[in-house]
């Protein structure tokens, strides 16, 4: 058979396949363990609220018909929550789908996109697929965001300023004053995109949603959220974006597939929004456990990044892939980071107390004496 590589665009050939992590069944088959703590993908161990079950009971009818291509009922509910117009909301097959949509809409070959580093890999990959160039703003030695460097990157007038706050994989965040500084440095020809996939875990006086700080500026912007994390709907793939205007949102709409969110996911997300109590309990457990696991990692001698997310990023002091494999053999899935300069770091999700105890016991067993 002929080698197909010559048919493939160079931008596709040069990016790495996304590291989606292992499934529980894969680890059971590979290592012969029965109990597995899946702590590599930042899922909510509590799962969705009970109200979502009523949606699944109507699965037959939801599956039979094409979904609302705009998800109008869900978009209207999201718009009310953010005090924006319905037309400013766009839905995606997870928020990463919207990163791809925005990059297809905005990034031209040779354009520069500024982002924080280490990054959620798809921020860089979708830019590269469109022929864009990456301007990385690396975290400081203490693993906090280098605000001065981010401001400088904004002043270089990139085509797009795209970053997560709080940031994935590190967990660090911009305070209201810091985010204000960054926004003030942005030129009107730059699109600002803030990925807030973990915002529900970050709420507090020292964390701002970019929607609140951007809404009264003359800038073009988009803020991305997801139902995959705190709402427990990772398997249904549903996320959303808030855009600065309905006009900008309409351009993004042209770049997405017509039915990019399915009917079951739309209905489940509506049910999840109607159960704030479940969300609150899930977030409270994650924050409590995050503090406990963070202190345990410090006690074991690891360097741990500050986090506003449902995960912790720590320096294993050795090849993180080797540590991750040792943990897999003990039934624990974590995510070794593979971006250059951070190959000794591991991102571990905050699971249930039982899962977290499983992780700590396994880590202690493979940690240097």
Automatic annotation (TrEMBL):
InterPro entries: Aminotrans_II_pyridoxalP_BS (IPR001917), Aminotransferase_I/II_large (IPR004839), HisP_aminotrans (IPR005861), HistidinolP_aminotransfase (IPR050106), PyrdxlP-dep_Trfase (IPR015424), PyrdxlP-dep_Trfase_major (IPR015421), PyrdxlP-dep_Trfase_small (IPR015422). Its EC number is 2.6.1.9. Residues 36-363 form the Aminotransferase class I/classII large domain. Its cofactor is pyridoxal 5'-phosphate. GO terms for molecular function: histidinol-phosphate transaminase activity; pyridoxal phosphate binding. Pathway: Amino-acid biosynthesis; L-histidine biosynthesis; L-histidine from 5-phospho-alpha-D-ribose 1-diphosphate: step 7/9. Keywords: Amino-acid biosynthesis, Aminotransferase, Histidine biosynthesis, Pyridoxal phosphate, Transferase. The modification N6-(pyridoxal phosphate)lysine is found at residue 229. One of its GO terms (biological process) is L-histidine biosynthetic process. It catalyses: L-histidinol phosphate + 2-oxoglutarate = 3-(imidazol-4-yl)-2-oxopropyl phosphate + L-glutamate. Belongs to the class-II pyridoxal-phosphate-dependent aminotransferase family. Histidinol-phosphate aminotransferase subfamily. NCBIfam families: hisC, PRK05166.1. Homodimer. This is Histidinol-phosphate aminotransferase. It comes from Mycoplana azooxidifex. The gene is hisC.
């Amino acid at each position: 058979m002929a080698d197909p590589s010559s048919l493939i665009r160079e931008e596709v050939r040069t990016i790495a396949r996304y590291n989606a992590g292992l499934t529980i069944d894969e680890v059971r088959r590979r290592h012969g363990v029965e109990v597995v703590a899946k702590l590599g993908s930042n899922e909510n161990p509590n799962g969705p609220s009970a109200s979502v079950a009523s949606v699944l009971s109507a699965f037959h009818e939801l599956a039979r018909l094409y979904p609302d291509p705009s998800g109008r009922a869900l978009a209207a509910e999201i718009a009310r929550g953010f005090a924006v117009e319905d037309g400013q909301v766009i839905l995606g097959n997870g928020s990463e789908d919207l990163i791809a949509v925005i990059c297809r809409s905005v990034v031209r070959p040779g354009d520069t996109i500024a982002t924080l580093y280490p990054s959620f890999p798809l921020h860089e990959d979708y830019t590269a697929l469109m022929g864009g160039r990456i301007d990385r703003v690396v975290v400081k030695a203490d693993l906090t965001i280098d605000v001065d460097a981010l401001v400088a990157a904004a002043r270089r007038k990139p085509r797009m300023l795209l970053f997560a706050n709080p940031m994935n994989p590190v967990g660090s965040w911009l305070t209201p004053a810091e985010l204000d500084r960054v926004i003030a440095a942005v030129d009107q020809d730059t699109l600002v995109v803030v990925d807030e996939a973990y915002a529900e875990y970050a709420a507090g006086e020292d964390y701002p949603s970019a929607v609140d700080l951007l809404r009264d500026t003359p800038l073009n912007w988009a803020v991305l959220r997801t139902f995959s994390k705190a709402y427990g709907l990772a398997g249904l793939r549903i996320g959303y974006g808030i855009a600065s205007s309905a006009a900008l949102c309409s351009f993004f709409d042209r770049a997405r597939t017509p039915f990019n969110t399915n009917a079951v996911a739309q209905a489940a997300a509506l049910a999840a929004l109607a159960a704030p109590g479940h969300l609150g309990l899930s977030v409270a457990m994650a924050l409590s456990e995050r503090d406990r696991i963070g202190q345990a990692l410090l006690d074991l001698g690891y360097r741990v990044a500050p986090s506003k997310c449902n995960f912790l990023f720590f320096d294993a002091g050795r090849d993180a892939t080797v540590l991750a494999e040792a943990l897999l053999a003990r039934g624990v899935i974590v995510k070794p980071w593979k971006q250059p300069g951070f190959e000794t770091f591991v991102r571990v999700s905050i699971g249930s107390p039982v899962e977290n105890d499983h992780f700590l016991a396994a880590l202690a067993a493979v940690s240097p004496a």
